Amino acid sequence: MEVKMIDMNIGKRIKERRTELGLTQIQVYEYTQISSGNLSNIEKGRVLPSSAALIRLSDILQCSIDYILKGDSSPFDKQNDFKFEELSKQEQLLLHTFNELDPNDKDELLDIIQLKIRRKNRKGKLSNSSPDLDTASA
74-94 in b/e burial notation, b at 16+ Cβ within 10 A? Predict the structure, then answer.
């Protein structure tokens, strides 16, 4: 029973990291050549990734294999240029608070953030593409 829980946690960490980075299963497939069906089974803990797949997942998810397998290190360990201390206090608080959430709440929060970014980008496109009223009436 404990082994099955470990398998599910591996899949859960892979999915969490993929969604944190805003990657789709198709994007992961294109890089790793793990089919979306197999990736789905990995993320659900039904199967374990091969050692070759772990290496490719580690690359695209920008995290260590140790993090994927055991989850006892930061997913940022692979990013040598990332220094937590260099973040603002607000950014540090955000990361710390985010890590306290359960996976469903993390997914929900990421969805909200992505929605706000899409709205912001849409507003920017609308204001840039709208004709100047002064020149339109001339």
Answer: bbbebeeeeeeeeeeeeeeee
